[in-house]
Amino acid sequence: MSITATELKQNLGKYLLLSANEDIYITKNGKVVAKLTNPNQSRVDTAKSLFGILPEDASLEDAKAERLNEK
Description:
This protein has four helices and three strands. By secondary structure, the protein is an alpha+beta fold. It has a three-stranded mixed beta sheet with strand order 1-2-3.
């Protein structure tokens, strides 16, 4: 959902309740300036959104070696 900063100011309580279920994007002059979201969003949902980013042959040892070589 996207709302203006003025709308947020006028109905803050309403949008605080709605942010428990969905992200609220706040716009000012037509540009998104903030996002009101639930801080207790499921970490499982976040992890699922990252699924498929790593190659299948990635290993913890390779990641550690790569990190140490970059320094």
